[in-house]
Fold each of these.
Amino acid sequence: MPVSLEVNGRTYHWPSRPTVVICFDGCDPDYIAAAREAGVVPALDRMMGQGFAAEALAAMPTFTNPNNVSIVCGAPPSVHGVSGNYYLDRATGREIMMVDAAPMRADTILARFSQAGGQVIAVTAKDKLRKALARDLAGVAFSAEKAALCTLAEHGIADVPQLVGRETPDPYSPDLSLFVLDAGIRLIAERRPDIIYLSLSDYVQHKHAPGTPEANAFMQAVDMRLAALLDLGAVVGIVADHGMTDMATPEGGANVVYLGDQLDAEFGPGATRVICPITDPFVRHHGALGGFVRVHLRRNTIGRDEVLTFLRGLPGIDLALPREEACARFDLPEDREGDIAVVGRAGVALGARAIDHDLSQLAGERLRSHGSLAEQPVPFIVSHRLSEAYVQRAKTAPLRNIDIFDFVLNGVEG
Amino acid sequence: MPVSLEVNGRTYHWPSRPTVVICFDGCDPDYIAAAREAGVVPALDRMMGQGFAAEALAAMPTFTNPNNVSIVCGAPPSVHGVSGNYYLDRATGREIMMVDAAPMRADTILARFSQAGGQVIAVTAKDKLRKALARDLAGVAFSAEKAALCTLAEHGIADVPQLVGRETPDPYSPDLSLFVLDAGIRLIAERRPDIIYLSLSDYVQHKHAPGTPEANAFMQAVDMRLAALLDLGAVVGIVADHGMTDMATPEGGANVVYLGDQLDAEFGPGATRVICPITDPFVRHHGALGGFVRVHLRRNTIGRDEVLTFLRGLPGIDLALPREEACARFDLPEDREGDIAVVGRAGVALGARAIDHDLSQLAGERLRSHGSLAEQPVPFIVSHRLSEAYVQRAKTAPLRNIDIFDFVLNGVEG
């Protein structure tokens, strides 16, 4: 094996023991703080005490696909091209949901280590991410959601429910994430992989605030799995793809600004098109409402400046940025950006038109979602002591979740 | 609360922290040894190193119901009356499957502590045991098998799948046991009960030998839960109801002596009746074949001595004992004993007539079962240091699994 590999401009050392990176979907730092307060996460306590713990910034927009891909590439969306779960193809005008690796244009750390002879495994909660994480990966990659359907040819593994000891979990349950962790534990015990990436689901966080019994129960169940990973001698790094914010009014209804309706009223129906890049197959989580949307203008009919001015005057809007400025500020790929990128204020959800969103999916629960700057801070935890150089680095430059592979592979002391 | 309680002639101190007794169904000591060898049970390693670990004897016959009831009563079957999963009612001549507490005639430690104001919880894998464990229990008692059906009125709890974070497990899966442990963890975290009894299923052990990947995976998954229980500050005691022995021939077929057929051939059809007290609703586990059966004689038609002599001459028979002798030797209730108790040799299953047993339930797997003396040795593990008096006691008198509540409530230091 090589001593190290360069991927997307960064060098990564070959791990000497199984190295796990967990993307703890939707894990706002408050979930960890509340669970520690309740005394239900002893393994996390140990990790944070004996290893390294800080907060880092997620990539914008704070959605699942852009951040998972950023983490496994160790690079921002401008490099790999994935800036949403859902986007408008500027060439064809069609709206496209990302369900595979097609929009990706950078190598992943996972793929490169696997091609160099490393044993690499990626397990994700939702199948929508699986193909992206598996891009060029010569190893095992599967989702908990489709665990029973794995084949050696397609996923590099079969009989996953037998491996884990239970059937495929309900995709709308906390067990979707726990199944991912349990699969990781079994695979480390049986195969001692070099690198394993475990990407969870934010089902619990979309439904329950930090410190609630449901949230603490989930944190405790995750913690039990962290203890098992550590007991197996793994180095464990934890980050999140985004935090989570309550986006309901005091009365409990969703606190939404329907930009599509507002723009239609102001500039005429169809003059603009609002794309909600949070949209994914898991609409029960969020009703496709989050803190970041993209506005596309019908060409040659409307001036961008007047739309920017209008948007900036609306309540609930934090930022309305022209494409170039949004891309420069957030490291986003220009060819996949809207004419205008809109960021909501903390606690405000942005939508297209009201008729585009099915709030009945929330089943009367408060809307909790993400996408804006408010969900950028995420945990950044490493199970083992870092070298002095990495401790200093974390103090002097802002940490990002995309730094996690660098820290676990290069920063952990012998 | 009282300082201590007397139950069935023994005194138990009131616990100062949550005290958990786990009945690790079918856990032959070899499962633990092989899992330790494989390095997959770090929490058990710690418990055994820092606390107390020995082997103890299960009650005869080595079946689930007699042993679970013995453990929660802290007394042998002669005291509480339950000597099988299935028995012939001598008064009516009817065969009866034990599905509730009707055959019990002693108080349980659980019931007495709950009546004295303690918060007591019993969780069992299979519902067949639930009513027995819940006898007179003023607290929470439910089974994983029927988790979704719990009501406050009947079980003292509702919404168990929500508590645990996943749906009711498949009764024929390792998860049936893991669900019990996860429920226990959640209940300790949320309610800090005084005493909690967790009774697992031997689904894995009936199918897989110690040290197999499937067995080690299960041991590892259990171990993760033990770590969580210890992290919550609980005192944990582990025993088993019985071990498990391979009862197949070298060619893989079930190694069965059909006593019913043999007795019919020798003494005429119907002169005797063979009762298999392993019989329970979980026939896929064992096809109702185990290492212990009871022979009832049709009254006044046949001499017991000649039947005893005949049985003792058969291959595969370890012991054939007249009722009085069996009851004296094994502390069994005379009114529920057969005229003759028959114990198989290690590795031999005893059946009634071949037509009474559906071996297709084994689906081609090797028969693994229990009931005889070979399955009496079980683990006896306490998570915390014992007082010198209890260490000495364990050295000087044979330990039994029914001693576990005594050890965790009275023997643990400070």
Amino acid sequence: MTQPVNPPARLLMGPGPIDADPRVLRALSTALVGQYDPWMTATMTETQELYRQVFGTRNDATVLVDGTSRAGIEAALVSLLAPGDRVLVPVFGRFGHLLAEIATRAGAEVHTIETEWGQVFPPSVIEDAVRRVRPKVLAVVQGDTSTTMNQPLDELGAICERHGVLLYSDATASIGGNPLETDAWGIDVVSAGLQKCLGGPSGSAPITLSPRAVAVLDGRRSIEAGIREADDVVSDDPIRSNYLDLAMILDYWGPRRLNHHTEAASMLYAANECARILLEEGREAVIERHATAGRAMLAGVEALGLRVFGDVAHKMHNVVAVEIPDDVVGDEVRGAMLEDHGIEIGTSFGPLHGRVWRIGTMGYNARKDTVVRTLAALEHCLRRAGHVVPQGAGVDAALDVHAAADVHAAADVHAAADVHAPGDVHTGSTAPVGAPA
Amino acid sequence: MTQPVNPPARLLMGPGPIDADPRVLRALSTALVGQYDPWMTATMTETQELYRQVFGTRNDATVLVDGTSRAGIEAALVSLLAPGDRVLVPVFGRFGHLLAEIATRAGAEVHTIETEWGQVFPPSVIEDAVRRVRPKVLAVVQGDTSTTMNQPLDELGAICERHGVLLYSDATASIGGNPLETDAWGIDVVSAGLQKCLGGPSGSAPITLSPRAVAVLDGRRSIEAGIREADDVVSDDPIRSNYLDLAMILDYWGPRRLNHHTEAASMLYAANECARILLEEGREAVIERHATAGRAMLAGVEALGLRVFGDVAHKMHNVVAVEIPDDVVGDEVRGAMLEDHGIEIGTSFGPLHGRVWRIGTMGYNARKDTVVRTLAALEHCLRRAGHVVPQGAGVDAALDVHAAADVHAAADVHAAADVHAPGDVHTGSTAPVGAPA
Ligand SMILES: Cc1ncc(COP(=O)(O)O)c(C=O)c1O
Ligand SMILES: Cc1ncc(COP(=O)(O)O)c(C=O)c1O
């Protein structure tokens, strides 16, 4: 017989998954309860409320899809898009291609615009395409992990509003580490995953839908034969998936609690704890922590003399793409990082495969000590591979960024102390002193 | 802020989910590792081998689908059936309807035959329908949890072979608790879930595909744009789902390890441990344990004067449908079981809703003490509800069944000792002494 799973010690500093927060690992081992147990339905309801806060929304329709992030993407697209419906996908990396691919399989008429990998789209370019294509849905990745770019979304809601288009965004890689304001930015549907800045395991996809998006689903609702009641609607063109039919998933999470799948309780517990951890620290403080760790990692790799790929002003806080120097073999350095230092960093896809390393600072791992450990190891591996690097410069630069951030945060708290009474909720981008580094 | 999840103490004796084995809960909290870490890919490969043994197959294509059992069903049907393909579904309960529904949404031409709830189909009736419909796929539930019936599958492979039909079966509720011989019975595709007799959480769907089934997928393979290489095939009629495209899922688990989703590592760990627990005890011993606990529960409810629904000769070992006596309100008794005794039992769907309770004895909960505790509580709740029940008769009857099984097992071991050398592997239906009761 095989032995129980017993993984080697690793520090996961790639583009995700990253080390889950130990609190999330503990939540995963919580005892199961039946899916209609009052405690269970209350826990589902509570988790919905937590994710409303994570997404920055008041959308009633905020639930988990029981699958990985791409299940969330497919649930959104297959549920919103009937065969023949037009969708516009601005592609700026691998995950834009994924959205287009999923929409194609859903039978939609897919239009794409593309920009060079390493860039994002100016809103005006997207608006021009919207005007030309007149899609039902504009589907755009927020942070495309393949290039590290973070597409600005804050003006897209207004554009979609003007043209009567639904706006969907995949925030899998960006949520938690970068600003995302579902309601304030007018995004109709956002889907995500736990395994990046939320510090959880892959396998649950939080999703939120505006009333406008729910209205589209309502028109496509069809309750399955095994549990249908006499007065229930039956569509003759139902959503093409049963498992990922968001109308049914919402009926399961909603007051009717219509049987669909059996909620994956362990993953629900994990999702619940991920959100609690984020909201306890505070949404803005968590973003600030990612910003600091990301700046530190960026400063560190630059101080090691490495070049950073893409439009740095538009990269996500939580991941950086580092160009692999010509005099080393990328996968050998990556291998040494893993084998000699126990640290995982990533490569990328398509045109960037073998050209960049992607180094993440996400969720539980967006910390000073993880940044420092990674930079020290990278310096060592580069030197061993024969690439000349300045001794200690990467770690120094990262420590400087963290020190400056600490001073800044302390100053903010002093300033805040003058105007806020104790116990006031902090908003804005100030991290309270004592928040995880 | 909300509190950490903290469920009430429950004993889950419904139709599933049931209490996860504590070993599985512990496995869930194992640290994450990157998806291409050599340890991770080795663990995936090991898990495939474990599930080959659980399914009774040598199929190379044995993997997990990252979703609940119905994700496994949909993956099988949407991947095998192109739009317009004919599928035959014998319906003998709610989950037969589900198969038909999922196939309809996949665009297949769906033909059903139905039998009364509480019955199964004689193979000859299925063969007649196969002859008439000439489907590409025969899709049949093994154990339909809604009625507790266990459709005999052992002759269906030969029927399908004769008519050149692919055979798919949903073994979610039956696997582990009842015989299932994927290869010996000639079943092409079987999908399952962890949350019944395998003693795990919902959210991972083990699936196995014969080479014949894989050949069908090969004809539909289409690698997505974001990761496609120059010489990769692109189908102009790809499988309608990306997330549940088994051709891509097999490429991810196979030697090419083509990126698809991020494996849900925590659920993989759980699935791995579920299989290890089953195989350590031995497949036949586990089935025998379910048979004994199921007989004990059946004898117990009958001794309490309750009637059992359906064709008892064909029920699954692991669940019994008990007719609700006329003089009590089913949901009140169920509520008292939960609130006063901490025990969950189920009701059913459609025509059986409010007419039967479903009591499960599955996985970790297929034990003597759980059966006894449930029967004692049921006696009490029935009496409190005003229904006359013989005092202690249910528990007595269950204990008698367990005692007889122990004697039988001991005799078997004695007999076996005469013919087997120590250390021989037990096959057949004998439970070794000392196996969990
Ligand atoms: C026979 C059968 N098939 C499929 C399912 C669906 O499984 P899930 O709820 O895990 O999606 C169930 C669930 O009870 C079942 O009993
Ligand atoms: C931006 C983005 N979208 C979607 C996905 C797909 O997520 P999953 O692998 O969880 O299905 C990823 C995974 O890395 C991602 O980074």
